[in-house]
Amino acid sequence: MISMRGKTGNIEFIDQKTEQREIRRTSLKEILDGSVLAREKVVKQLPFVLFVAFLMFLYIGNRYHTEKIIRQTLELQSELKELKAESISLASELEYLSRQSQVARLVKQRGLGLVEAQVPPVKIKVKSRKLNNK
Asked: Which of 42, 91, 93, 102 keeps 20 to 30 A from 10, CA to CA?
């Protein structure tokens, strides 16, 4: 069989037996015994198939890594919520204990002998003198 390709006028000779083998349908027996993998078309495509397999492994690995990061993020977010709640409860407890009435009660309970001042504090005013640089 003779075929013409392109406008350059190149003539390419193709063996009819090889072409018929490639065109022939693949039977179940050929698939099971592995002779399909030995064909010339399949062997030519082997580097591409290996490259696609490599890309698939990268994709799967990337997905597992991403899922791991998402799980860690969710765990950290829940831990952050717990710590915020604990912080708020400790702050409110500290505010309650630092009230004047609570401090006075704790001083009495522990017998520290401290007495609450009956007179409010007084501001001390200092009169400033003008300095002459003469």
From this structure: 42
Can you give the residue ranges of every domain in the chain? 13-44, 46-109
Length in residues, the chain: 134
Cα–Cα distance measured from residue 95 to residue 103, given in angstroms and rounded to the nearest whole number = 11
pLDDT in tens, 66-103: 999 999 999 999 999 999 999 999 999 999 989 988 98
Number of CB atoms found within 10 A of residue 107's CB: 14
Question: How far is it, in rounded angstroms, from Cα 67 to Cα 44?
Answer: 37
Six token digits for residue 68: 């791991």
d(C-alpha 71, C-alpha 65), whole Å: 10
Question: Phi, psi (5° rounding) for residue 11?
Answer: -110, 130
The answer to whether the CB of 50 falls within 8 A of the CB of 41 is no
DSSP state letter for 26: P
